[in-house]
């Protein structure tokens, strides 16, 4: 077994869609970033890459490469899953938490989990997404950004 953890954060800004877990969420602000800035998927990718000993998201999809501008982060997840499979690993499970004061994310968690499970090729029960606030404390509490953290378990493919 191999375990990895991931963390990501992006600032909330005007003029961008809010995309979390591959789900576009109605909100007046979106996340700033080179790709679609999906903090949840970025944290999951880092957890998976870490567990596989494959570095981090920035090494594979640098924000200095124009090909990744505006890119759908679900493509990153599918690519990482392919790299892991090629290395002889399969995803055992993923557990992730999104930290955002607002908007309320509960109604969208099921769709986020379904996207992740489908993109990773795992049973939906192997993916768990949670959402929490910081009780209005700190930069997430002030609505300046959204953070996500994830843990992933890899098992041998055979």
TrEMBL record:
Signal peptide: none annotated. It catalyses: 4-CDP-2-C-methyl-D-erythritol 2-phosphate = 2-C-methyl-D-erythritol 2,4-cyclic diphosphate + CMP. InterPro entries: MECDP_synthase, MECDP_synthase_CS, MECDP_synthase_sf. 4-CDP-2-C-methyl-D-erythritol 2-phosphate binds at residues 8-10, 34-35, 56-58, 132-135, 142. The record marks 34, 133 as: Transition state stabilizer. Its cofactor is a divalent metal cation. Residues 1-154 form the 2-C-methyl-D-erythritol 2,4-cyclodiphosphate synthase domain. Belongs to the IspF family. This is 2-C-methyl-D-erythritol 2,4-cyclodiphosphate synthase.
């Amino acid at each position: 077994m191999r375990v990895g953890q991931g963390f990501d954060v992006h600032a909330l800004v005007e003029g961008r869609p809010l995309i979390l877990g591959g789900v576009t969420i109605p909100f007046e602000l979106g996340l700033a970033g080179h790709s679609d800035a999906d903090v949840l998927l970025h944290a999951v990718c880092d957890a998976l890459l870490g567990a596989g000993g494959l570095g981090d998201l920035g090494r594979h999809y640098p924000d200095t490469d124009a090909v990744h501008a505006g890119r759908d982060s679900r493509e990153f997840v599918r690519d990482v899953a392919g790299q892991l499979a090629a290395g002889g690993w399969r995803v055992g499970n993923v557990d992730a938490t999104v930290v955002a004061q607002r908007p309320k994310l509960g109604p969208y968690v099921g769709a986020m989990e379904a996207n992740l499970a489908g993109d990773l090729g795992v049973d939906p029960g192997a993916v768990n997404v949670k959402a929490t606030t910081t009780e209005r404390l700190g930069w997430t509490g002030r609505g300046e950004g959204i953070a996500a953290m994830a843990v992933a378990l890899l098992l041998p493919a055979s």
